[in-house]
Amino acid sequence: MKAYTYIEHGRFGLLDKPNPALQDPRDAIVRVTLASICTSDLHIKHGSVPRAVEGIIVGHEMVGIVEAVGSEVRSVKAGDRVTVNVETFCGECFFCKRGYVNNCTDPDGGWALGCRIDGGQAEYVRVLHADQGLNRIPDTVSDEQALFVGDILATGYWAAKISEIVPDDTVLIIGAGPTGICTLLCARLKRPKRIIVCEKSPERRRFVREHYPEVLTVTPEACREAVLANSDRGGADVVLEVAGAEDTFRMAWECARPNATVVIVALYDRPQMLPLPDMYGKNLTFKTGGVDGCDCAEILRLIEAGEIDTTPLITHRYPLGRIAEAYDLFENRRDGAIKVAIDCTE
Ligand SMILES: [Zn+2]
Ligand SMILES: [Zn+2]
User: How does pLDDT run across 289-302, given as a tens digit for each residue?
Assistant: First the structure.
């Protein structure tokens, strides 16, 4: 089969690889129909994910059709259309039982797919712990509608959930990249009084205004003043930091009101300063990533009910054979690219 592979630092390539086979009774093999490219794939390419293994097939955001299941798999069967979870988790350990699946203690637990175990920018993918890692897509939900459920939408949903937004809140979301927009979509479900999105790209600010006209958009330069002017309590009640840029961690706690919750969704390239003397007395609560992606069934239900729609994020489509071009477009954000869908059946 064709499989997009992490060859070495700085280089991915489309290689011919053997089709994956069941190796454990809890495995499933999924024929990938649609995959996507995530910023984390670029992090692997450029060496900022040290645990990524050279030679691995990349891709951790995909949907497909179950081809085969091991003897212990109960929740899906061959022929089911499914979303694949970015995280591998056993469902049984201390962390899994409490919903902290990102810290699953299974040797393959956490973000392993397309990083330490073969991923899904390929024709087929083996999914470990398939009862946990796969969710059936409702018949009325299309592949495109479900494409982001297992990764960026799971992240946005988790971030909104742990942020404990209440209806009276002013919420600041820093970053309107794909994950930022998914976070925005899930934060809206909590019906806060006001959402402010801070984003440096004019193109992305325009995208947010066009699709979510009730959201206030600001530039990083104007962010702090805009938050102060639009909050009743000297800052945002909840801040969600999804940008991971040079100054956005500082911006996150500076724009928060006293006793606010600051959720760090972003994956930073380098260590961040926590200047405790400067924030002393602000009594902030920080919550940090990565995602506990165990609410995919609920997310699919919300999509089916028309509460979440991420299809406007898919700005481009490519066949698997031209995935290198898709990466180039995505990485350089050409032509207004937000997310690229890769058709793995062509
Ligand atoms: Zn990702
Ligand atoms: Zn576990």
Answer: 889 999 999 999 99
